[in-house]
Amino acid sequence: MKKILVMEDESNIRSFVVINLRRSGYEPIEAATGTEALEKVKANPDISLALLDVMLPDIDGFEVCRRIRASGSKMGIIMLTAKSQEIDKVTGLMTGADDYVTKPFSPAELTARVDALIRRLGNDEDDENAEIVSGPFVLNPRNRTLEKNGQRLKLTQIEYQLMKLFLENPGKAMSREDILTAVWGADFSGELKTVDVNIRRLRIKIETDATEPEYITTVWGYGYKWGY
Ligand code: CA
C-alpha cells in the first residue's frame, strides 16, 4: 500500500481526507503541524506522496514543501490551497509542488488527483529503470547488470557505464572525448587512452571475437559506436 502524508491542522478536514484515501487503497500518515509533517517524512522515507495544507499554525505549507525537496525527496506533492488564492498556486509550483487542489474539494476530486500523480510518478520510475535490449544483450539499470543470451556478464562499474552509454546511443559515432566525459565525468583528468584500454577489456567480455568486434565498432580517427 502506498503511503500518503496528510498534513492538515483542521482535524475535521484531515479525517475526511484520511477516510477517503483509505477507501481508495492508500495508507495515510497524519500530521497536524509542519514540524510533525517533517518528522513523519524523516521516519517514513517510503512516502509516495504528500498532501500539504498551506495555512498552518507553525511553518507554512510552502516551507514544508521546500524542505522536503531540499532533502532530495522526489515524492509527489499536492498543495491544498484556500479558495481563489491564485498566488498560492504559483508559489506552490515554484517551491517544488507537482499539483494543487483548491478547498473545498470533493473526495472524488482529491483521489482523482492523487491517483493521477501516483501514476505519473510510477511511469517516470519505470522509464529510468526500463531494461534496454539490443540483439543478444539485456541491460538492467535497476540492478546494474548485463546479460548476453541470458547469461550474466561480470562487468566493472566503468564497463557497465560504457555499455549503458552505447545501448542508449545505438549507431551513433561517439568521440573518445565524449565517451570520457560521459563515463568518467567532466572533471576526470585522465588520458583518452583510458577509453581505449577499457573498451579493449569490454570487448573481450561481450564480443564473440574481440579482434573482429561486431558490437562495439571502431570509428577510425574518431572514437567508437554501437553496431555498424
Ligand atoms: Ca489550515
Tell me briefly what this model is:
With 228 residues, this protein is α/β, with parallel strands linked by helices.
What secondary-structure arrangement, pairings included, does this model have?
Elements: E1 3-7, H1 11-23, E2 27-31, H2 34-43, E3 47-53, H3 61-70, E4 76-81, H4 86-94, E5 99-102, H5 107-129, E6 132-134, E7 137-140, E8 145-148, E9 151-153, H6 157-168, E10 174-175, H7 176-184, H8 193-206, E11 216-219, E12 223-226
Parallel strand pairs: 1-2, 1-3, 3-4, 4-5
Antiparallel strand pairs: 6-7, 7-8, 8-9, 10-12, 11-12
The chain binds calcium ion.
Residues 9-10, 53, 55-56 line the site of calcium ion (CA).
The number of helical elements comes to: 8
Helix content: 40-55%
Number of strands: 12
CATH architecture name of the largest domain: 3-Layer(aba) Sandwich
CATH fold node name of the largest domain: Rossmann fold
CA(first)-CA(last) distance: 47 Å
What sort of overall outline do the alpha carbons produce when their principal axes are compared? Answer: elongated
Bound molecules: calcium ion
- Number of separate structural domains: 2
Radius of gyration: 24 Å
Q: Strand percentage, roughly? A: 15-25%
Q: Report on the biggest sheet.
A: 5 strands, parallel
Helix/strand order, N-terminal first: EHEHEHEHEHEEEEHEHHEE
CATH class of the largest domain: Alpha Beta
Instruction: Give the structural class.
Output: alpha/beta
Uncertain runs are: none
**In CATH, what is the homologous superfamily of the largest domain?**
Response regulator
Strand order of the biggest β-sheet: 2-1-3-4-5
**How would you state the average pLDDT, rounded?**
90
